[in-house]
Amino acid sequence: VDIYFLFSGLIGRSWAMVFAAGGFKVKLYDIAQQQLTSALENIRKQMKELEESGFLKGALSVEQQLALITVCTDLKAAIEGATFIQECTPENLELKRKIFGQLDLIVGDNVILSSSTSCLLPSKLFTGLKHVKQCIVSHPVNPPYFVPLVEIVPHPETDPSTTETTYALMKKIGQSPVKLNREIEGFVLNRLQYAVISEAWRLVG
Question: May I ask which residue range the UniProt record assigns to the signal sequence (predicted)?
Fold first, then answer.
């Protein structure tokens, strides 16, 4: 079974639940142990509520899914055995570039580096990395557990196999991925969503 590695904020927790529901091992990484402890408590609470309401995803029980999720505050230890890394830090270009720069130094050639960014272009995130062919954006709709759409956006140098593997993985965990042939400002979902929201405000007005 592959091991997946994420960050422990709101999006990271939701991604962790989606991957665990799909039967995959997950490692949640954060620099703060308290953040990880809080994340696990939050995930357990959400899963219990989902189970009680009949909306828990996957064929596994809550306890079986929770057993697939572990936490780690050491970056090297966190990515050991990982084949897919989903970054979920805040929308800060410098922070994301720093994280991917660190990962670029320690990952192997068979690991996909994926970002949850909702608006930063892959060319701004990944250009200059030696593993750029393994880099891609997997933009979820918040929260990923309830809204399955995922935009897959490649860097100009992303290997086609990275795109196809990411697409297949998203399908396997029950998401509804859409592949973009190339990066575009705002991606597609945001541009359509903003247009609808703007028109809604005009209608209200």
Answer: none
pTM of the model: 0.93
Q: The tokens of 111 are what?
A: 């690991």
The answer for residues whose C-beta is within 8 angstroms of residue 77's C-beta and 6 or more apart is: none
Write out pLDDT tens, residues 18-51. 999 999 999 999 999 999 999 999 999 999 999 9
Counting the structural domains of the chain, the total is 1
Rounded CA separation 74/72 (Å): 6
Kindly state the average pLDDT of the residues 149-169. 98
Question: Which domain, by its residues, includes 74?
Answer: 3-204
Residue 67 in contact with residue 25, Cβ under 8 Å? no
Which CATH number does the domain housing residue 188 bear? 3.40.50.720
